Here is the input.
Amino acid sequence: MVMRLCSRALFLSLLFLSASLAEEPPGGYPGHEISPSDLMTHVRYLASDELDGRMTGEKGAEEAAAYIARNFEKAGLRPLGDGGTYFQKFPLPDKVTPGDDNSLTVTLNGQTKRLELGRDFFPLSLYASGSVSGEIVFAGYGISAPEMGYDDYDGLDVGGKIVLLLRGYPKDMDYRSHFYDYASLRYKAANAAGKGAKGVIFATPESIGEEDDLAGFAFELPSGTAPVGAVIVKREVAREIVASAGRDLARLEETLSGGKSGSFSLRGSEAEISTELLT
Here is the structure.
């Protein structure tokens, strides 16, 4: 996930670089018209093997940052970073590992099951450490977008409960639409907390073919950014949870893709989440 965040940051930097020049630009600045070849010069360098993947904190990322700063200077951009530079330092854990106190227990139709860390679930780093428990509520994709007439929480009481949410957004919604703005786990966790939920269980929908490695999601959110306990589970776990209420995960996704509400409470169910991540 750190790699993903770094790639997004570099891509955004390219938008600024498109208004500047390559290392040895023809014609000089300002007044040099931006061309596809200029932009591709930046892309080729920043995506080259020379930078070794640009993992945060490693040599490749430092070289990429220096390259971007040089081009910012050539473009005449005023530095507003630390000490009159183009850089701003901030703390970022270079490694997040689960502590001893990580557990997820679900009770469905009177049957309690303790899930296995790493195989069935993994904690997310948006919650410092602690334990929460409550009734399980399926809240679709966890999106509230009234300007588009869509709200997974409409008519749903999640106060003091644990919400089961799908990653992404309804599959038939155009990714270029504003729904893309609501796809991050960070937004969904904060939205759930704002609705009164105590915890969040994320799962990968059927529409996303291959599931990512659960442990990779530990980097998805900065530590302690939302007051809800949060984990991500394997899709099979989510299937089992909704099936306990006589529902089918794939059919629920179809309902949501049609713009209809698929949210519901699982009466008599309970989830208990304990998280501890060490940095």
